[in-house]
Amino acid sequence: MVAPATLSLRPSAALAPAATALPRARAGFARVARATPYAAVSYPPRRFESIRRAVAVDSEQQGSAEPPEKEKKPQTYYFVVANAKFMLDEEEHFQEQLAEKLRLYGERGMEQDFWLVVEPKFLDRFPNITKRLKRPAVALVSTDGTWITFMKLRLDRVLADQFDAESVEEALASNPVELKFEKPEKWTAPYPKYESGWWKPFLPPKSSNGTA
Asked: Phi/psi of residue 126, each to 5°?
């Protein structure tokens, strides 16, 4: 009589090595990857990293000191000069020309850039001019060299030159002097003679008697 076959339900021993083989394979792969130089891959920097560097550079530039301002250059002033009696009492059309120019500036909203200076201090710079002048002297001063050249040709009996000054106050500084002109006994012109003091609107600012 043949004995009946028995069925064994124990786990198969052949399946156990398969479960432990996978970690060994992974570990081996990792060792090969670290040992092989071609396994290291470099990636280009991401976009946000470039933006971060740009922001850092911009912040450094903003924090840097601003460049120093350029030094202010002196202003050039042009002038014609003659003795006060000729400029203010004898030259009949001088007042009219100045008044017309001042009116034009007012209509166009332009800042006045010409003045009459009685006994200007800047004449000390021009000994060759002062030795030819009768005193007191009066100068027509402007920053417009072209117009001063025109006035030189128009007035004729005047001397002209130019100088540099750091400020308008320096350029228009004057020595105090009192101007008095005798009225002529006879006046033959068809128009009345200009009244003494007509030049006051053309004196430097904060000046009423030819002083600055």
From this structure: -125, 75
